[in-house]
Fold UDP-galactopyranose mutase.
Amino acid sequence: MNILVVGAGFAGSICARELVEAGHKALVVDRRDHIAGNAYDVKDEHGILIHQYGPHIFHTNSERIFNYLSKYTEWHYYEHRVRGVVNGKQYPFPINRDTLNQLYDLDLTEEQAAEFFEKVREPKEKVQTSEDVVLNSVGRDLYEKFFLNYTKKQWGLDPSQLKAGVAARIPTRTNSDDRYFTDTYQAMPLHGYTAMFENLLNHPNIQIKTSTEFKDVLTTENQFDHIVYTGPIDAFYDYKFGHLPYRSLRFEREHLKNVEQYQSVGTINYPNDFDFTRITEFKHLTGQKHSSTSIVREYPTAVGDPYYPIPRDENEKLFKQYQALANVEENVTFVGRLAEYRYYNMDQVVGAALNAVDKILGK
């Protein structure tokens, strides 16, 4: 088969590689001038490896997915840590026993920390919104200190207006584990994500065209047996039912000369101060040694490239209209965060892409 793959991020690149491994040919197009999608990383003018579209930290519990990517990269083992700033002080986040002890000047054991959460939580019979999730778990004070304003900045909505799944991603711990993720496999591609994608797409039967709109290659001369589409599903159908809402980000990058380390951990959240949500220092993530450092501040915005599908019932309803059209497509496969309007982690996109290929080959 001659296959057109729209998008050179995780979903598109993995589908392309697996389909050519099965004997087909693939043309991969991307409207941006580079491969690797939002995971694209590049050395800035000071020689620091930065993530162009905000921090991407790989973690998974799936041995299959970790082993799959290991064919295309070596790894730098890295466990991400985050601090949340409340009243000018930094605390471990997600909230754990140390957060409670430092914030309230206590000396709780694990058992006492569990009792503390039980005492302050506001039990909800029906947990439907993000606000419900957090109040049900840690109560009002911690909700207001760490979650409420961060969520408002991140999504432009009150937590009571967002589905439960958004907050459910963040655990609460009674121990002192201050890692952001507890997955079995936590690592960064040793030479960066872009290098990993170059390896993924390095095959004689894969042709790549960047700075290319996919509709521009759908000409009478170019005949494709199948399309793998990883872009926004509403764009594919020319916004027939209206635009699906997304949250975007604006990045403010800064290089700090002769500053070896700017902050103590990879990311620091600012739930209650400033217009940005967080600052990430890339050298923590990559393990790069350098006498200076580069950081990025993230400003959530309603305009710009689509990053995060906004999890609300009315948006899900609109997506379902597009999905109904997608379901009857014979020769188009929709896969990925934008095409499926799903808040996927990177490993989940890898899994979705591998499953999509199985279905295409099964046909």
